[in-house]
Amino acid sequence: MAALDPAKFRNPALTATGGRRAVVALGRLHTLWFNTGTLCNVTCAHCYIESSPRNDRLAYLTLAEVEGYLDEIERDALGTELIGFTGGEPFLNPALPEMIEAALGRGFRVLVLTNAMRPMMRLAARLRPLARYGERLTMRVSLDHHSREIHERERGPRSWAPGVAGLRWLAAAGFRVALAGRRFTGETEAELRRGYARLLSDLDIALDTEDPEALVLFPEMDPDADVPEITEACWAVLRRRPEQVMCASARMVVRRRDEPAPSVVACTLLPYDGRFALGATLREAARPVALNHPHCARFCVLGGAACSG
């Protein structure tokens, strides 16, 4: 695969060839994500956010900080429906069960991204009562492939069994579960979905792998590989619309280790890039976003993906 042209993704207004760069306006804040911290219990071979047991570039959010943004949603009647929690591994943040309940208690739907391993199981007693919220709470478990071998090639030795055990615990405890996989093996989407269906049948877990929200298959995101820049003219050529892109309906709250308070970034994929830091409040973060990063093209526009399904 060709290396990324260094002239690309430099100018927020123009592409390397002089085309007007595509810009996406926030329509309605349908989804607000909270990155609860970048620490993770595993080190994946390819992690877009570089999470690991040592990466604490994004510090743990507190319950009070999360509630402050939930207050802003209600005060300004933003119409937000979904609250997402991601990391790192979100369950390394010991306040996560209370954060989830705070969002559910206000009537939001909640999506939690987890590897379902030991950090989650350590909080199982505090997590289990939240199953009473039923369909309003989804626990999306990351299984990078439907086979142990390929999953562990990405997530490391001995990562399969704990993740599968956590998935089975969630299903048995009555949680609504979903899966997140990766498109990095050369298999077609149909082949991948059939493989996950066989796995879930063996585990006796009911999940419709043909449902793109029940099984999300993410495209790969190598920021150093070449990808076209997205111009205003691309929407018609690709038969895509700006409102289909994640930053048209979502934002993410982060707290960088060297900053005293949280801030809001354009999306879940770009927590470190200062060009996508939009302000301290949701009101400040409502401004348009220039698609000035390879992830904007590869994941959102050309890949047609979104973290919330």
Give the count of helical stretches.
9
What spatial order of strands do you see in the largest sheet? 7-6-5-4-3-2-8-9-10
- Write down the overall mean pLDDT: 95
Based on Cα principal axes, name the global outline: globular
Number of strands: 11
Rg for CA atoms? 19 Å
Determine the fraction of residues in helical runs and give it as a percent range: 25-40%
Structural class: alpha/beta
* Terminal-residue CA separation: 28 Å
Write the H/E string, N to C: EEHEHEHHEHHEHEHEEEEH
- Spans of at least 5 consecutive residues with low confidence: none
Portion in strands: 15-25%
Describe the main β-sheet briefly: 9 strands, mixed
Question: What does it look like?
Answer:
This protein is an alpha/beta fold. It is globular and about 55 Å long. The two termini are 28 Å apart. Helix content is 26%, strand content 16%. It contains 9 helices and 11 strands.
Write the layout of secondary structure elements.
Blueprint: E1 23-24, E2 31-35, H1 63-75, E3 82-86, H2 96-105, E4 109-114, H3 118-122, H4 124-127, E5 137-142, H5 148-155, H6 160-172, E6 176-182, H7 189-203, E7 215-218, H8 234-238, E8 250-254, E9 263-265, E10 277-279, E11 289-290, H9 294-301
Parallel strand pairs: 2-3, 2-8, 3-4, 4-5, 5-6, 6-7
Antiparallel strand pairs: 1-11, 8-9, 9-10
Helix pairs in contact: 1-2
